[in-house]
């Protein structure tokens, strides 16, 4: 399936493998927060040195020797991050970053090992960016009946600026309509009811597929079509007097276009050490990586994950009073005494 660098944002909502270079290039608004090497993808490419690129939308890993071997993990797909003791092909037994992610109906586990001794930067970068992503969802997620209004004023987000403040805007979700106020910022469109401001909607531009004027039973209405990934809603509004509708549409379309060209995703990271900040904000050096040949893929992670989980579930250590330590359970019909007797007789 072809991916576009304009329109719907997919980078933070998909887990993909063996991507062509065009899919690895940063889209408008995507920023590199950290670039770390050498990093081993211990789960799928044990023994291979690679580079990890952490952006405000995803985690990218690619092999240094063969960059067409790569993966992209959207931050919205990550369920959890932790550390795990693993057997690395390049470092032996060591502690690594463990990432559990979900995409569509599948779950994936990724294990990244930093090949630089005593360096945990890959862990701190990924966990820090993931937390910042989760804390900034109001920039990217449509919200119904949220705690976004206080004292008839919009609770502003960092980097947010009010562009339009329109009164006497009717929400057409009921037969009679609800009178309210439309607040348009550089990040989103917010409407709330005059009588009860808890009845509201916050629509970031990233969730809006189109804005237009259509005929309705109330006459001409301003219609927002929300992307399927954000619920696929169709929301209608009417303005009094109706002559305000077309100038309002023009303003909204201009702001929506401006956001599309230069989106604000809401993640900002403070660097304690400026030297740690990536020198460049793109991955142009991968331009000649060639087309993927299927070296990687979901099966590498799904199959090995299932077999490992099965092993862990079946083989749990048990305490042996005979030896005074934990051991692997013995097969049925065997005892420690009989094992030692066999060993002695040999």
TrEMBL record:
Similarity-based family: Belongs to the BBS5 family.
Matches recorded under PANTHER family: BARDET-BIEDL SYNDROME 5 PROTEIN (PTHR21351:SF0), BARDET-BIEDL SYNDROME PROTEIN 5 (PTHR21351)
Protein name: BBSome complex member BBS5 PH domain-containing protein
SMART domains: DM16
Lineage: Eukaryota, Metazoa, Ecdysozoa, Arthropoda, Hexapoda
Alphabetized UniProt keyword annotations: Cell membrane, Cell projection, Cilium, Cytoplasm, Cytoskeleton, Membrane
Superkingdom field: Eukaryota
Subcellular location: Cell projection, Cilium membrane; Cytoplasm, Cytoskeleton, Microtubule organizing center, Centrosome, Centriolar satellite
UniProt xrefs under Pfam families: BBL5
GO CC terms: centriolar satellite; ciliary membrane
Residues in BBSome complex member BBS5 PH domain copies: 30-84, 160-214
């Amino acid at each position: 399936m072809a991916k576009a660098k304009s329109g719907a944002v997919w980078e933070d909502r998909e887990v993909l493998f063996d991507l062509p270079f065009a899919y690895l290039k940063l889209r408008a608004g995507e920023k590199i927060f950290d670039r770390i090497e050498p990093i081993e993808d211990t789960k799928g490419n044990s023994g291979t040195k690679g580079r990890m690129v952490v952006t405000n939308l995803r985690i990218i890993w690619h092999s240094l020797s063969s960059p067409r071997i790569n993966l992209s993990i959207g931050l919205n797909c990550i369920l959890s991050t932790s550390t795990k003791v693993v057997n690395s092909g390049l470092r032996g037994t060591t502690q690594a970053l463990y990432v559990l992610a979900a995409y569509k109906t599948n779950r994936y586990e990724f294990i990244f090992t930093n090949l630089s001794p005593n360096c945990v930067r890959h862990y701190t970068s990924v966990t820090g960016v993931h937390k910042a992503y989760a804390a900034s969802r109001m920039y990217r997620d449509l919200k119904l009946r949220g705690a976004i209004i206080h004292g008839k004023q919009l609770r502003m987000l960092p980097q947010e600026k009010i562009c339009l403040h329109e009164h006497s805007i009717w929400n057409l979700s009921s037969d009679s309509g609800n009178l309210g106020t439309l607040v348009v910022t550089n990040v989103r469109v917010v409407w709330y009811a005059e009588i009860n401001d808890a009845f509201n909607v916050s629509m970031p531009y990233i969730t809006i597929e189109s804005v237009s004027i259509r005929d309705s039973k109330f006459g001409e209405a301003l219609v927002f079509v929300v992307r399927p990934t954000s619920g696929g809603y169709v929301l209608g509004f009417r303005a009094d007097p109706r002559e305000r509708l077309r100038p309002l549409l023009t303003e909204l379309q201009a702001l929506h276009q401006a956001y599309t060209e230069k989106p604000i995703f809401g993640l900002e990271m403070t660097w304690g050490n400026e030297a740690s900040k990536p020198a460049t904000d793109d991955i142009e050096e991968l331009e000649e990586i060639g087309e993927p040949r299927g070296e990687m893929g979901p099966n590498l992670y799904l199959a090995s994950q299932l077999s490992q989980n099965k092993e862990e579930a079946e083989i749990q250590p048990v305490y042996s009073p005979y030896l005074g330590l934990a051991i692997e359970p013995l097969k049925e019909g065997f005892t420690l005494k009989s094992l030692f007797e066999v060993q002695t007789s040999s």
